[in-house]
Amino acid sequence: MSSPSTVHVQLGDRGYDIAIGPGSLKHLHPTLTSMHQSGARNAFVVVDSGVPTRFLEAIERTCEAIGLKVSTATITPTESIKTIETYQDLLTQIASTGHSRVDPVIALGGGIVGDLAGFVAASYRRGVPIIQCPTTLLSMVDASVGGKTGFNLQISNADGSPKLLKNLVGAFWQPDLVITDIDVLDSLEARYRRSGLAECIKHGCIAHGFNHPELMDWMIANLDQIIAFEPQAISELVSRNVALKASVVAADEREDTSMQGGRMLLNFGHTFGHAIETIAHLSPNKDDPSLAPLHHGEAVALGMVAACRAAESAHNLSPTVGDELVSLLDRVALPSRVPGLPSNDDLIERMGHDKKATAGSVRVIYPIQRGKCEVFADADPSHLAAGFDAIRC
Ligand code: GLY
Q1: How close is the Cα of 243 to the center of ligand 1, in Å?
Q2: What is the residue with the minimal CA distance to atom 2 of ligand 1?
Q3: What angle do CA 133, 18, 263 make, to 5 degrees?
Q4: Which of 96, 164, 291, 298 has the most CB atoms within 10 Å of its CB?
Q5: Rounded to the nearest whole angstrom, what is the distance from the C-alpha of residue 168 to the centroid of ligand 1?
Q6: Mean pLDDT, residues 60-87 taken together
């Protein structure tokens, strides 16, 4: 596979290209030119404050050269700002620019920026175009592909304590274009790089079911170059993972819950992971509690190990599947155990609060063999507990 490359998401008239590689931001020009020819006069850019300014400046220059007036909203992304208030603030800003139905939103940032900007695009004037420009490995291989948008909602438990419901509000809104410029990863901290690798490993664990059986073996064979973040290896890693994600989305655009598989399989590791991700004192390194809380990819890494071990208990999955996963996570310095987990009852209760749980039951994704997972409704709590016990230290 050469780089730069383009992956097309096959969704008929909602289909779109994902331009991948160093310098791929240049692909903005033809798309914005065609939008301008169709009447666009404004562009609303939602940018992550941590992204080097040269990328925003490049977008601004491109827009201005074409004749689009640019307005920018800057976000410092944390889960705690992924709220209705931030969404409302963005809506107020875009409305005050006179943004029309044909004017594009451009998201330049990681998953939080992409989700919020995406939901603004999905809902403002009942929908305007959006171009996603992901800037983290995690958002490149996962969040920017497939049109999931939204924000978190905080409600209260019966005892009055706050409960965060992640991504509870949102819409499917496919982008017009995704630009995945690998150059932007140069500034990404090592911990965020590792978080993105967790989602790549997750893809490898489901890839057989989507006709990408070679994905896991390719990642293992190229792991040294991937860990060293060599540009050629990272471009190919992103291309291969985006191709997998595009296949999943094309097969099941809206995560059909009646489907045995499809997009739900992307939640491998996530139902266990979400149960621990919001526990503020958990650290990915047992010797350094100051690293708490877990990043999303770290929680997913732990969640995948828990799911493998639970599957060993549920249907005698061969331990070699979990063992290979743990050794891969060790090599990329992602956690496979975590100190300070609360009781299994507490954790299982938290799993039930995952929005992917159906009423009264916990639905999980378990591996059934290397590279292949399935959805299991109504998971037995004793198997879930075995999974959590396997990641305690
Ligand atoms: N991140 C899971 C999905 O896009 O469906």
Answers
A1: 14
A2: 266
A3: 100
A4: 298
A5: 13
A6: 96
* Ligand 1 close to Cβ of residue 148 (< 6 A): yes
- pLDDT tens for 98-112 read 999 999 999 999 999
For CA atoms 263, 268, 274, 277, the dihedral sign is negative
Contacts of 254 (CB under 8 A, 6+ apart): 172, 263
CA dist 357 and 336 (Å) reads 24
pLDDT grade for 357, boundaries at 50, 70 and 90: low
What are residue 315's phi and psi, to 5 degrees? -145, 35
Q: State the pTM of this model.
A: 0.94
- In order of their start, the domains of the chain are 5-188 (3.40.50.1970), 217-390 (1.20.1090.10)
Q: Assess whether the C-beta atom of 142 lies below 6 angstroms from ligand 1.
A: yes
